[in-house]
Amino acid sequence: MRSLLPLGPALFAALTLSTLAPRARADVAPPFEPVESCTMKAQSGAGKECLSCAAFHGNSSHCEESLASHGFTRGCRSGVALVWSEVWCRAASPKATPVPKEVLAQLDSSTGHPPATPVADAPNAPPPLPPTGGCGGCATPRPETAIWAPMLALGALAVGWSRRRNRR
Q1: What is the CA radius of gyration of the chain?
Q2: Residue 1: inside a domain, yes or no?
Q3: Which residues are CB-neighbours of 75 under 8 A, at least 6 positions away?
Q4: Residue 60 falls inside a structural domain
Q5: 0.70 surpassed by pTM
Q6: Is residue 149 assigned to a domain?
Q7: Alpha carbon distance 37, 43 (integer Å)
Q8: 88 near 53, Cβ under 8 Å?
Q9: Domain that holds residue 82
């Protein structure tokens, strides 16, 4: 191990410089963006009245509870497994009862109604909040902040090496 001690500062410098080097950019294909077929434009047509509604896994019956009693049926659903949007349509008719303003106001909020099945151990608990985009709250550091952890570790290693070397 004695022959590796002179390499300590050089190794520290090389590792420090390598963490400061800009990240290489790979030649990556652009992200796949599927064509969305569940849109208001695609679902609505002559003789149809359609509304868009948001929902999430903790309140999956939100749209049905809001619109089914007014004669709407679900036309389609789009989005991911945790958060999605639905388009609900009904036949356009002058005799159709108008949808109340309170219902229309909460359609874009997936937490507009409480979940269909209340939690048994907390019946008065507020409805669960929808995930906030992406991975639902992952704690992954951004690339520009992730560089500090290895640099701190290298600094601690350098301090340890210098103390060890000074003891001799």
Answers
A1: 28
A2: no
A3: 38, 43, 50, 86, 87, 88, 89
A4: yes
A5: no
A6: no
A7: 8
A8: yes
A9: 37-117
Of the candidates 80, 51, 84, 77, which has an alpha carbon nearest to the alpha carbon of residue 66?
51
Residue 88, beta-bridge partner list: 51, 74
CA 41, 43, 50 angle in degrees (round to 5)? Answer: 90
Measured CA angle at 168 (ends 2, 5), to 5 deg: 25
Tokens describing residue 159: 């301090």
Residue 152 tokens, joined? 């701190």
The total number of structural domains that make up the chain: 1
- What count of other Cβ atoms lies within 10 Å of the Cβ of residue 154? 17
Residue 53 has pLDDT above 60, yes or no: yes
Q: How far apart are CA 96 and CA 99, in angstroms?
A: 9
Strand-pairing partners, residue 28, are none
Tell me the backbone φ, ψ of residue 137, rounded to 5 degrees.
95, 30
Can you tell me which residue has the tokens 């507009």?
A: 112
Q: What is the pLDDT of residues 127-151, one digit of tens each?
A: 666 665 555 445 555 555 667 777 7
Rounded Cα–Cα distance for residues 129 and 109 (Å): 11
Distance, in Å, from the CA atom of 54 to the CA atom of 60, rounded to the nearest integer, reads 9
- Within-domain flag for 137: no
* The pLDDT of residue 24 is above 70: no
